[in-house]
Amino acid sequence: MSPADRYSHLCECAIVREGTAADAREWSEHEVQALWFAGAFGKNFTTTDGRAVSVVQFGVWNREAGPDFAEAAVSFDGGAVQRGSIELDMDVADWERHGHATNPAYDDVVLHVFTGCGPRESFTRTSQHRAVPQVLLDLRAIEEPPNPQPDAKPGRCVAPLRALPLEKVRDVLLGAAQFRMRKKSAALARLAELHGPDESLYQALATTLGYKSNKLPFTLLAQRLPLRLLRAAKDSATALLFGVAGFLDQRELAPFDSPTRAFLRGLWERWWPRRAEFERLTLPRELWKMSGQRPMNHPQRRLAALAQIIRHFPRVRALRDACLPEATTEFFDGLRDEYWDHHYTVTSKPSAKRMALVGESRVTDMLVNVFFPIGTAAGSARWEEFVQLPAPLANRRTETAALRLFGDTPPDAKFLRSAAIQQGLLQIYEDFCQRDASDCEQCLFPSQLAKW
Ligand code: SF4
C-alpha cells in the first residue's frame, strides 16, 4: 500500500463527515461559475427529467449580452452533439426572474444549470417556446476544507507525535502529502481534459498567483481571457489583463509619479479601444482583496507576473515538461519588467533596488501546486524529487498547523523546511484540525497515529 493509500485509510477510519463544508457555506455566483468552468462538478450529469447529459465542450465565457457560456457542446443520452450556450444561475427561477424566457439572446441555450430550486416545478423555456434541459448542481460535490480556523496553539497530538521516532513522523506526513499531491494531479488532469494542456497550465498558474486572498479573481481572469486570445493580442495582452481585472477604470493620472503615469497611459491607450468588447467580462472591484497584502504580493504585481508568463509561454510549457526546480527558479528570477522591477504597487514610491517580480515562495507555490502535480502524474520518479524540495516556512496556515502538531519545538530545525512535509501538515490540518469542534478532545488523529 502506498503512503497516500495508508493516509487515505487513516482518514476514512477517523473522519466522521457530518455534512460537508459545502452545506454550511454560502457560494457566490462567481465562485460557482468559476468551479463549473474548471470542471469541479464533473462533465456528466442527469437532467431534471432523467436524461444523461455530457458536456462535450464547456465553451467560452460569453462577451456578448446573453447566456454565461457560449460555444458549448452537449450530448444527451450519448446522442449527437448539440452546440449552443449554457446558462448558469443560482436558482432555477432566475431564468424567468431575469427575463431570459422572452429574450431571443437566450434562444440557443442547450443547458440551463442551477444550484437551487424551490418546491414548485420550474420550467426553462426560450422565447421560441422550446423547453431547455435543466441540470441541478450538487454543491456538496465540492470538496473544500471547512472554514473555521483553529486556534494557533499546541494540540493534543503534540505528545504522541513527540513519542514517535522521527522517521515514522516523516512517513505519516509524507503519506498525507502524497495524498494531497494526488488530488492536485487529478484536478489538473481534469482541467487539461476540458481546456487542453496549455490553457489548463495557464489557468492553474494564474490561480496560484492569486493565492491566497485573490484566487477567485485570478481564476476568473484566466478563464475569461484565454491564453490563445492573449498570445494573439501580443503587446496588448497586459492591457487586456489589467482592463478586465478592473484596474484601468481611473482616467485621472495626476496623482501618480511620472514613471507610473507613463506606465498607466501605455496600458490605457491599448485598453480603451477594446474596453466595450470586454465590458461584460470585467471583474467587479469587490472581488479583489487589495488591503492587508504585503506590497510584494499586491494583485497588480502578480498580474504583471501573469503577463510575463503569457509572453514567455513556450518556455513555461517546457518548464512544465521538465519539472526541474532549479530551472524554474532561474527562469522566474530572470523575468524583467521595466516598471515593476522598481515599483511595489502603482501608488508606492519607486525603489532604487530591483525587486523580483516572482519571489522565491511564489515559485515554490507554482512548483508545489502546478509543476510537480503534473510531473508526478506523468512519472513516479518526480515524487522522489518533490520530497527533496526545500521550502521556506512562509505561510500562516502552515505555521499554525506546525504549532498544533509539534508545539513550540518542531522535531528539528530543518524538518519543516520541506515542501512535502508542509503539504502533509496542511492536509492533516484540513482533514482533522479544521473539522474538529471539540478542542482536540474527540479528534481521532492521535489514536490513528498509533496504528500507522
Ligand atoms: S485537532 Fe486533532 S490533529 Fe489537530 S491538533 Fe488537535 S488532536 Fe491534533
Write the layout of secondary structure elements.
Blueprint lengths: L2 H12 L6 H4 L4 H9 L6 E3 L5 E6 L2 E2 L7 E8 L4 E9 L4 H4 L11 E6 L19 E3 L21 H6 L2 H30 L1 H13 L5 H10 L2 H7 L3 H8 L13 H14 L3 H4 L20 H13 L1 H10 L2 H9 L26 H19 L2 H7 L8 H11 L12 H13 L13 H6 L2
Parallel strand pairs: 5-6, 6-7
Antiparallel strand pairs: 1-2, 2-4, 3-4, 4-5
Helix pairs in contact: 1-6, 3-8, 6-7, 6-16, 6-19, 7-8, 7-13, 7-16, 9-10, 10-11, 10-13, 14-16, 15-16, 16-17, 18-19
This protein binds iron/sulfur cluster.
The site of iron/sulfur cluster has 13 residues, from helix 18 and helix 20.
Describe this structure in words.
The protein is an alpha/beta fold and 452 residues long. It has two domains: 1-15 and 147-452, no CATH class; 41-141, no CATH class. The protein has helices spanning 3-14, 21-24, 29-37, 94-97, 158-163, 166-195, 197-209, 215-224, 227-233, 237-244, 258-271, 275-278, 299-311, 313-322, 325-333, 360-378, 381-387, 396-406, 419-431, 445-450; strands at residues 44-46, 52-57, 60-61, 69-76, 81-89, 109-114, 134-136. It is globular. The N and C termini lie close together (12 Å). Bound molecules: iron/sulfur cluster. Iron/sulfur cluster binds next to α18 and α20.
Small molecules in complex: iron/sulfur cluster
Radius of gyration: 24 Å
Basic shape:
globular
Proportion of strand residues:
5-15%
Q: What fraction, in percent, of the residue positions are helical?
A: 40-55%
- Low-pLDDT stretches: 18-22
How would you characterize the largest beta sheet?
A: 7 strands, mixed
Mean pLDDT over the residues: 92
**Count the strands?**
7
Q: Which structural class is indicated by helix and strand composition?
A: alpha/beta
